[in-house]
Specification:
The complex is a heterodimer of chains A (474) and B (242).
Chain A (H helix, E strand, L loop, with lengths): L1 H10 L4 H19 L7 H19 L7 H5 L8 H28 L6 H22 L4 H16 L17 H24 L1 H13 L14 H9 L2 E6 L11 E6 H20 L9 H25 L6 H4 L2 H32 L3 H28 L16 H5 L4 H16 L3 H24 L1 H13 L4
Chain B lengths: L9 E10 L2 E11 L4 E5 L6 H8 L7 E6 L7 H6 E4 L11 H11 L5 H11 L15 H13 L5 E5 L7 H13 L3 E6 L2 H7 L2 E6 L2 E7 H6 L7 H12 L1
The chains are: A mainly alpha (474), B alpha/beta (242).
Chain lengths: 474, 242
């Protein structure tokens, strides 16, 4: 019975093709991890930074991989709670764990001397990361931010030389790293099982709290022109959402919004601190500007994906799209959101341009990347996701649909950006700054041109609308 | 701009629509005269929703032509005239009730949208929920909001898919009264004969994407035996086609 339940729970959330891809990624990661010889210092920064990211992600944006139909049907069946919890834990691990193995697999190559420790550390970490979503999804935002902060401090403390850190494996403390990760797993896994065994009750309570209440300040649109109203919603308000067309979040869909002015303020503070640190070369353990820039750019690409997920998912064809030419409406909202992201990132881009004036060529790359490539990527990803696998969000706190291979394609436009960062970094390391800049400028122009071509192509816009309608958008 | 007193007609001329290899509509033709109110009847999968989506310009016909008055459904002119309520309509979930209405009002270019919103909030008994997030509303109140959004600009052509779904009886009466008083051409897709008889005067029946029958409700009743319920007559006609 358990096997049947597990099979049903897995296949209702993942297509067979995506499971096969995960297997390929796993084998590839293990292959990479078995290779030795790489001694790049990058891994010593890249590893802890990614562990930090994956510990924060399930707490802030995640949840549990539950479908609406589970609430209506599966949870009402007379199933053993322990079997249900185990099945849900497995799918939770599939939606997180294998990707983590894949991504962190590359850093194994720098850990050849401590490989057995590294394996124990990562297995324990995968269990911890899998458990964090089910443990924290019922918490209010304030508590989740607190837990996320504590979770971030653990791996980041490795940079300060603290041995009891899950990321200590990268800083010469493999045994202490294993002890920390295993202790964390021993604490979090039982809590996750407890949470998953009463998922129906907790989910309903969380859902009721999440959807209830009034808006704090009702926005006024009276007297606005149509274009101004679109900008009021899509430019001045920034929407962040998780789990729509890509893997990497915990399962359920969640969205939040904040005012652009507040976002720019936070962004300016971060940019100021960033500029100060990199210009005055404080004696950080992370004493390599290239590595700092590298990690920063990886983070920015990952985060930008969250800005694109709700753009179409939260739209309503029968409302906004009926008020004017649908292709024009789509163009207006996408352009407004893209400009909004550019504005949000502009303080960070300016900080990089200032650093570049001080003689660091890589900073110019990153400045252009933040100001042009990421906003262009938003447009490209939105249009591509409409074609590949559009999903309309009709209810939050549940998965909008099965995860399949086509959704992975949505991430493809991000790949050239990642490759750009890697190449320009490698080129710079080899002492060819002007070539690195040429690569960046060319890619920047290319991305901007693709984005402009997409938004101004009426025939492409019509195909997108047609695809949305036939995919069941209302 | 002063609107002419006669609302526009609605017409489908030989419309076919394919989804891949599947043909959802097969050479479908019908016409609603200006100001006429018609019910679009048909079993599940008959092509009712596809018909409405073509008429509102969200889908293009594979062949044939749809017209709203003299305009193509996808033209700016017909969009300005049309109000559309899909089945299971969902407004913007992250907005409040008032924000939804004001936003769509602004996109529609309505002057004094606040006043218009206030009137609709009162007439549809949504006043107490104006600051509530849509996610908090009951299904009935979501439907009331959806109706308000479909009619906020006083459309002269209304295309409604199961408009009375989820509504309580007093609200149903309010909505029926409101829709009957609108100077508009209305096409109402429904499964429920009671809805058809309360909201419309004529019936268009389709099945498997093809036209089956059209006539007034009186003509439909005359097709049955003495005392035979109208639902049974419709069921027999649609079953004969299948």
């Amino acid at each position: 019975m358990f096997y049947k339940l597990l099979k049903f729970v897995i296949l209702s959330r993942f297509s067979k093709q995506i499971l096969a891809l995960m297997l390929v990624l796993l084998v590839w990661a293990l292959f990479i991890s078995s290779k030795t010889g790489s001694s790049s210092a990058v891994y010593h920064y890249y590893g802890p930074a990614l562990i930090t990211f994956f510990l924060i992600l399930p707490v802030l944006s995640g949840g549990i991989a539950v479908l609406k139909s589970d609430r209506d049907f599966l949870f009402t069946l007379p199933l053993k709670r322990s079997e249900l919890a185990l099945s849900l834990f497995v799918v939770q691990m599939l939606s997180f764990g294998l990707i983590i193995i894949y991504i962190l697999g590359y850093s194994f190559s720098s850990l050849s001397s401590v490989l057995p420790y590294a394996l124990i550390d990562f297995i324990a970490l995968i269990l911890v990361i899998t458990s964090l979503g089910p443990i924290t999804y019922t918490l209010k935002l304030g508590w989740r931010v607190l837990v996320a902060t504590l979770m971030a401090l653990l791996p980041l403390s490795a940079f300060a030389g603290f041995p009891f850190s899950p990321a200590g494996i990268y800083t010469g403390h493999p045994l202490y790293a294993d002890i920390t990760s295993v202790v964390l797993a021993v604490i979090t896994v039982p809590l996750a099982f407890r949470s998953l065994s009463r998922v129906d009750l907790d989910l309903m309570k969380t859902f009721t709290r999440y959807t209830s209440g009034d808006v704090k300040r009702v926005r006024k649109f009276s007297g606005m022109s149509p274009t101004r109203a679109i900008f009021a919603v899509n430019f001045f308000i920034v929407e962040v959402s998780g789990r729509m067309n890509s893997l990497g979040s915990g399962g359920s869909y969640r969205s939040g919004r904040f005012r652009l002015s507040r976002g720019v303020l936070v962004s300016a503070i971060i940019a100021g601190a960033y500029y100060y640190l990199l210009t005055y070369r404080l004696r950080l353990p992370l004493h390599s500007q290239e590595v700092a820039l590298f990690i920063f750019s990886i983070y920015s690409v990952i985060f930008i994906m969250f800005f694109t997920m709700g753009v179409l998912g939260n739209e309503r064809l029968w409302l906004g799209f009926m008020t004017r030419n649908p292709t024009r409406y789509l163009r207006d909202i996408v352009v407004a959101k893209s400009l909004s992201i550019a504005t949000l990132l502009s303080p960070l881009a300016i900080a990089n341009f200032l650093i570049a004036l001080g003689g660091d060529e890589q900073a110019l790359n990153l400045g252009l990347f933040l100001l042009v490539v990421i906003p262009s990527l938003l447009i490209i990803v939105v249009y591509l996701s409409a074609f590949l696998y559009p999903l309309q969000i009709k209810e939050e706190l549940s998965m909008p649909g099965q995860l399949n291979l086509r959704q992975m394609g949505t991430l493809l436009p991000a790949l050239p950006a990642w490759i750009l960062v890697t190449i320009s970094f490698a080129v710079l390391e080899n002492g060819l700054p002007s070539l690195a800049i040429l690569i960046t400028v060319t890619t920047t122009i290319l991305f901007a041109l693709i984005a402009i071509a997409l938004i101004y192509s009426d025939s492409f816009g019509k195909k997108v609308i047609d695809k949305l309608v036939t995919s069941g958008f209302v | 701009m002063e609107r002419s007193t006669l609302p526009p007609s609605i017409e489908m001329k030989g419309v076919s629509r394919y989804y891949g290899d599947f043909q959802a509509l097969k050479n479908l033709s019908f016409k609603l005269e200006p100001g006429e109110r018609c019910a679009l009847l048909g079993p599940n999968g008959a092509g009712k929703t596809t018909t409405l989506k073509i008429l509102v310009g969200l889908l293009s016909p594979s062949s044939g032509e749809a017209k709203i008055g003299d305009f193509s459904p996808s033209s700016e002119d017909s969009r300005r005239m049309m109000g559309y309520l899909p089945d299971d309509a969902s407004p913007y979930r992250t907005f409040s009730v008032r924000e939804n209405m004001e936003y769509i009002g602004a996109l529609r270019g309505i002057d004094n949208v606040s006043d218009k919103v206030d009137r609709l909030l009162d007439s549809l008994q949504l006043r107490e929920y104006e600051k509530s997030k849509v996610g908090r509303l009951s299904r009935g109140n979501v439907q009331k909001l959806a109706l308000a959004l479909a009619i906020i600009h006083d459309p002269s052509v209304l295309l409604l898919d199961e408009p009375l779904n989820y509504l309580d009886i007093p609200t149903q009466e309010t909505v029926i009264e409101y829709l009957k008083n609108l100077n508009s051409t209305q096409l109402v897709s429904t499964h429920i004969m009671e809805v058809a008889t309360r909201l419309t005067d004529r019936v268009i029946m389709i099945s498997r994407g093809t036209f089956v029958w059209s006539g007034t409700l009186e003509e439909l009743k005359r097709l049955g035996k003495e005392g035979e319920p109208i639902e049974r007559i419709v069921a027999r006609m649609l079953t004969d086609v299948l």
